[in-house]
Write a structure and sequence with these properties.
heterotrimer, A alpha+beta, B alpha+beta, C alpha+beta, A: alpha+beta, Aldehyde Oxidoreductase, domain 4, Aldehyde Oxidoreductase, domain 3, 3 domains, 7-stranded mixed beta sheet, 5-stranded mixed beta sheet, 19 helices, 30 strands, about 30% helix, B: alpha+beta, Uridine Diphospho-n-acetylenolpyruvylglucosamine Reductase, domain 3, Enolase-like, domain 1, 5-stranded antiparallel beta sheet, 14 strands, globular
Chain lengths: ~775, ~290, ~160
């Protein structure tokens, strides 16, 4: 047996990245390239009446200034999702009305960056300032103040009628009736902040028109194929005229599952017939890219004395900001990915998602689940406390098990009815055991200072592997003279290592060494389609396509050799770079290739597509050991343990890396990260000085276990790994704080002041 | 990008002042540049003082320590002259200023002249009775550092240049500790406190408590200092420490902003002051500087 | 304005703007390992050595580099210590998206040049100015300590 899957092969792009080679979007500068800069609205809500660019155009080096008069108002969504997108069509390239502080007003193109920046200061804009609404509850109440006046042509949002961007109300069983029969009903409200993905490479794109009059877009994206389709719509040109190239991407985490700058560089390149480049500043990332939706979640749970959870209601109120990209589906995930953890007979899930004049929310790793998981896993601790039951026991008694069905998934698909989900693989029970052991559950260590208290907390999490019945990808495998293969996939490596993992799966299936696989990904002219890098889909869904394509190539070769050797093709063994038949005759893959290409005169090559009607959940059990300074409220996480079931582990080190990185982001969600927006809609901390993400000094000792299972529907048994470990850190840490000092932070991040205040309130009550 | 018309290099403090005054338009001094390039102020030109010969660290024969304004924060964290003074309290404060690469270029003078209420170097230097030296084209003036700041982002400088600060030898023998309270490991100070205690015959003398980020300018908590002066530090000081901490909290004038509320900042002055005094007293009882941590 | 400096070991003249930061000047000089991440001195993607000390080139004025020595990752590709660090980062899985890797490598190189026996804490201090959103720092720290161990000063 070839052994590539399960080994730590060298990440396919690591060497060039470690050499600092010019492989990212901005490392390529086409001759004659112009720099674009966006003038952004200083008002949260204002009509853009007139733009006077006379002075700006007079600046040396300024080539063009555009605003809404120069563009056509084609309604679209910027969410990168499969067509028809389950997000409202509420956006145009250049709006006539600014809907948040930071909305597009005008765009400058200039020969140099400094000329573009000088021009921004000189553009004169006449605004009609409108009343702004930044509070989501007020926005939901107000029908006299519409953030979107034009109806959503597909009726996903209530644009034109109210500020309701998305609404969900789905029920399994009858929660109200069930609650009446329960021994105890616990209701609590949890508050989740806006946070930002903070990939270190900002959004950056460049576009030019080539010698065949085609538009080439080189961009840092997670969704090259969706982008091509969206650009065609917005620019009113056929997809055939557009080629999207994704070079190496410096992180995306969902924030690049969106068209954020590509339309502008494309429009300007077509208009000016020159290459145009636009790169966000960090300030723009924090005000004009996408945020994780802030939510308020009311949890109502009914239990029996023995701890059986009978009914569970989650009511989510969310703020999507000025536009509704991913509004329905992120909020849908808050319940759909989270509530099945405890499969009560009665589950009710309600969402009201509001348009406001705040910065835009969208996709961010976890996609709604971190919010829901925080509420649910804190709530389980609260229920346990009220019941007088051990919080670990309460979880063990109720959590989802092998063979359990998840009826909520049938009610809640990707913006429509979905498919019933049955758990065919899980090691959650072992994850809990391993995690408890590693954290020292029930054996709290003493605090390290007299004014510290110590606590332990845990959380369980589950996610999905792609969107069932929706996500799909294609793969092509082609054999070369020397026995190497070209693997081309639409799947999008954004740093997570999917090129490596897909190459491993291909090598495993063909029985060739990993370094014989040459992968090319995400170029819309040259690779098959793929939905892109999101929803934890790449290993599971795109990997499925790779395995199928490689298998078909193998079958072609087996057919050829079966004829040559007069044996049953099914008896041939592909391993270690050779093909062997039962009587012992053997050929190296190179000789097989030479035979195919020069004697049989055929190109062994296969293209396959893969879609799954299942979305098997990966699971995680996560544990935190924290110390709390009882006087300052500071929280110090000493150790954090994650035990994760992601099915078969294709590349252990990359999978661990996914967990460790997700935990770092989850830690930030728990303790520091919050994009602060004031009542006027202005971001107060639009830079890393004040928007704190974890540094090396902030990280506790991390312990990560990958507790393997074999998922029957996954390639070599694999499930997803990328998102599930971001869900548990916040509730585990907040539960640990509560264990240490006896107060619960219903609102994260649990900043020192919030913890201090909670302790003071407890003291005075 | 910072839209400057000109970048000038000064070869001496006097040259720097002359180049600044030459005009035309508005000029500013630049040293490390880590604050100025962060949020570039509107101005026409800058005068680079990093080659003006004001980056030296020196000790006088009687033990005074001189810190050149253009000395980098990294130098302050590592130079033996600084790590050996007052138990390394100045080095400790410098080491908690920004991140490693910022400290390679950010200067002491830049930190002080930028005059943020949260300037990381101010409290510890004030607690050690720093004097600043200010150059004009033809003369130099010295004033106590505590009088250097006149408001947020404002100092007494005008168009003169800070050339350095001096710390008296006597201050180097005090026990001194400073601490900043932050949200995450590396952050702008929410509250900063520095405490320095001298002794005279078993009693506290030359008590200094300096506070940062809790008033328009860094300040001394004079009443709390007085409350501790002459305290017999071999006795049980618990109540006296708590009182002094409470008094210090009453002496600050914090604001509420997106980083923290005034109420929290004030209480943190109490907490940190109390802890630092107690730790300094322990150092004294152990017979010296216990280090700055 | 034109400045002269030693760039990656070679005397070089650079045409710069007076208010330009060193990051933009270096990318303009095709040093693409120097990455833009924040331009506020917080993320460290643009870390280079200025006279041997790690600096955030985004908050250093390009003009300040006049007459000094600036070293980027491009200038250290042949350096044995840098090569060991690169190899170890690659082998330990410390390179995910790789955008922060050049800056991290410069910081770690500067650390190990000055201290052959760093502790875990020392490595984290040295990396405190290099934000990485992918790895949680586990593998980069492991890699740095592994290289330190080969320098004979493991602790």
């Amino acid at each position: 047996m070839n052994k590539v899957v399960g080994t730590n092969v060298t990440k396919i792009d690591a060497v060039k990245l470690a050499r600092g080679e010019p492989v990212f979007t901005d490392d390529h500068r086409p001759p004659g390239m112009l720099y674009a800069k966006v003038l952004r609205s200083p008002h949260a809500h204002a009509r853009i009446l007139e733009v006077d660019a006379t002075a700006a155009l007079a600046v040396d080096g300024v080539v063009d200034v555009i605003w809404h008069r120069d563009t056509r108002p084609i309604l679209h969504t910027r969410a990168g999702q499969s067509y028809p997108e389950p997000s409202p069509y509420d956006t145009v390239m250049m709006p006539e009305k600014a809907r948040f502080i930071g909305d597009r007003v005008a765009v400058v193109a200039a020969e140099t960056l400094i000329a573009a920046e000088r021009a921004l200061d000189l553009i004169e804009v006449k605004y009609e300032v409108l009343e702004a609404v930044t509070d989501m509850d007020e926005a939901l109440r107000r029908t006299d103040l519409l953030i979107h006046e034009t109806p959503d042509p597909r009726g996903i949002s209530q644009a034109g009628r109210s500020n309701l961007a998305a609404h969900i109300d789905k029920q399994v069983g009858d929660v109200d009736a069930a609650l009446k029969t329960c021994d105890l009903v616990v209701e609590r409200t949890y508050f989740l902040p806006k946070v930002q993905a903070s990939h270190i490479e900002p959004h950056v794109s460049m576009a030019w028109v080539d010698e065949d009059d085609r538009l080439i877009v080189r961009t840092s994206t997670q969704i090259p194929f969706h982008l091509r389709r969206m650009l065609a719509r917005i620019l009113e040109i056929p997809e055939a005229r557009i080629r999207v190239i994704k070079p190496r991407v410096g992180g995306g985490f969902g924030d690049k599952q969106e068209l954020v700058v590509e339309d502008l560089v494309s429009f300007l390149a077509l208009r000016l017939r020159r290459p145009v480049r636009l790169e966000f500043t960090r300030h723009e990332e924090l005000v004009a890219a996408r945020l994780r939706h802030s939510q308020r979640i009311v949890m109502t749970t009914g239990v029996m004395k023995d701890g059986t959870i009978v009914a569970n209601r989650m009511h989510v109120t969310a703020d999507t900001g000025a536009y509704g990209s991913h509004a329905l589906t992120v909020q849908g995930n808050t319940g759909q990915k989270v509530l099945p953890m405890y499969p009560a007979k009665n589950i009710h899930f309600i969402v009201d998602c509001a348009y406001t004049n705040n910065p835009i929310s969208g996709a961010f790793r976890g996609y709604g689940a971190p919010q829901g998981c925080f509420a649910l896993e804190c709530h389980i601790d609260e229920v346990a406390r009220e019941l007088g039951m051990d919080r670990l026991e309460l979880r063990k008694k109720n959590h989802i098990r092998l063979g359990d069905t998840d009826p909520l998934s049938a009610k809640l698909g990707e913006g429509k009815e979905g498919l019933v989900r049955v758990v065919h693989s899980t090691s959650l029970e072992e994850c809990i055991v391993r995690g408890c052991e590693a954290i020292g559950w029930g054996d709290k260590r003493p605090p390290t200072q007299p004014y510290f208290k110590r606590g332990l907390g845990m959380a369980l999490a589950m996610q999905g592997s792609g969107i069932a019945g929706v996500d799909w990808g294609g793969a092509t495998v082609k054999l070369n003279d020397d026995g190497s293969v070209n693997l081309t996939v639409g799947a999008t490596d954004i740093g997570q290592g999917s090129d490596t993992v897909l190459a491993q799966l291909c090598a495993e299936e063909l029985g060739i060494p990993y370094d014989k696989v040459l992968i090319l990904s995400s170029d819309t002219d040259f690779t098959p389609f793929d939905v892109g890098a999101y929803a934890s889909s790449t290993t599971y869904v795109s990997g499925g396509a790779v395995v199928k394509a490689a298998r078909r190539l193998r079958e072609q070769l087996a057919g050829l050799l079966g004829t040559k050797w007069e044996c049953d093709p099914g008896d041939l063994v592909f391993s270690e770079g050779s093909v062997t038949e039962p009587r012992g005759r053997s050929m190296t893959m190179q000789d097989v290739a030479l035979f195919a290409l020069y004697e049989a005169k055929i190109q062994p090559m296969a293209t396959e597509s893969h879609m799954s009607n299942e979305s098997p959940p990966p699971f995680a059990a996560q544990f935190a050991d924290v110390e709390v300074d009882t006087e300052t409220g500071q929280v110090f996480v000493r150790k954090f343990v994650s035990a994760v079931d992601c099915g078969t582990v294709v590349h252990p080190r990359l999978a661990e890396g996914q967990v460790e990185g997700a935990v770092a982001q989850g830690l930030g969600y728990a303790l520091w990260e919050e994009v602060l927006v004031d009542r006027a809609g202005k971001v107060l901390n639009p830079h890393f000085l004040d928007y704190k993400i974890a540094t090396a000094l902030d990280m506790p000792e991390l312990v990560t276990f990958l507790v393997e299972t074999s998922e029957p529907s996954g390639p070599y048994g694999a499930k997803a790994a990328g998102e599930v470990p971001i869900d548990g850190p916040a509730p585990a840490i907040v539960n640990a704080i509560c264990d240490a000092v006896g107060v619960r932070c219903y609102r994260i991040p649990a900043t020192p002041e919030r913890v201090w205040r909670a302790m003071k309130e407890q003291e005075s009550s | 990008m910072w839209d400057l018309k000109e970048y000038r290099y000064a070869s001496s403090p006097e040259d720097a002042v002359a180049l600044l005054r030459k005009g035309p338009g508005r000029g500013m001094f630049i040293a490390g540049g880590t604050d100025l390039l962060l949020f570039p102020p509107a101005c026409d030109f800058v005068v680079d003082v990093s080659r003006a010969g004001i980056d030296r660290l020196a000790a006088t024969p009687d033990g005074d320590l001189f810190l050149g304004a253009a000395a980098t924060l990294h130098t302050l964290t590592t130079d033996p002259l600084v790590t050996g003074f007052a138990g390394g309290a100045v080095s400790h404060a410098a080491a908690h200023c920004g991140n490693r690469p910022v400290r390679s270029t950010a200067t002491l003078g830049g930190n002080l002249c930028n005059a943020l209420p949260s300037a990381d170097m101010a409290p510890v230097l004030i607690a050690l009775d720093a004097t600043c030296y200010i150059a004009d084209v033809d003369n130099q003036e010295s004033i106590p550092l505590v009088d250097f700041f006149t408001g947020p982002r404002r100092t007494v400088l005008g168009d003169r240049l800070l050339v350095g600060v001096a710390l008296p030898a006597e201050a180097g023998r005090r026990v001194c500790r400073s601490r900043k309270l932050t949200r995450s490991a590396e952050d702008i100070s929410l509250v900063q406190v520095a405490v320095a205690l001298g002794m005279e015959g078993g009693r506290l003398d030359q008590v200094r408590i300096a506070l940062g980020a809790v008033a328009p300018v860094p300040l001394r908590a004079g009443l709390a200092e007085t409350a501790l002066t002459d305290l017999d530090y071999h006795s049980d000081c618990t109540a006296a420490v708590a009182d002094a901490a409470e008094i210090a909290a009453g002496e600050c004038d914090p604001i509420s902003d997106h980083r923290a509320s005034a109420e929290y900042r004030r209480d943190m002055v109490r907490v940190l002051t109390g802890r630092l005094i107690a730790e300094c007293l322990d150092d004294l009882r152990r017979g010296g500087n216990g280090g700055a941590a | 304005m034109t400045i002269e400096l030693i760039l990656d070991g070679k005397r070089t003249a650079l045409e710069i703007l007076p208010g330009q930061n060193l990051l933009q000047a270096l990318r303009g000089a095709s040093r693409f390992s120097v990455k833009l991440g924040c331009e506020t001195g917080d993320c460290g993607s643009c870390t280079v050595l200025l006279d041997g000390e790690p600096v955030n080139s985004c908050v250093v004025a390009a003009a300040r580099a006049a007459g000094r020595s600036v070293t980027t990752l491009e200038g250290l590709l042949g350096d044995p210590l840098m090569q060991r660090l690169q190899r170890e980062l690659v082998d330990k899985g410390a390179v995910q998206c790789g955008y922060c890797s050049p800056g991290m490598l410069i910081s770690l190189y500067a650390l190990l040049k000055q201290d052959e026996a760093p502790t875990d804490r020392d490595v984290r201090e040295a990396l405190s100015g290099n934000l990485c959103r992918c790895t949680g720092y586990v593998k980069p720290v492991e890699a740095a300590l592994a290289v330190a161990a080969t320098l004979g000063g493991a602790s």
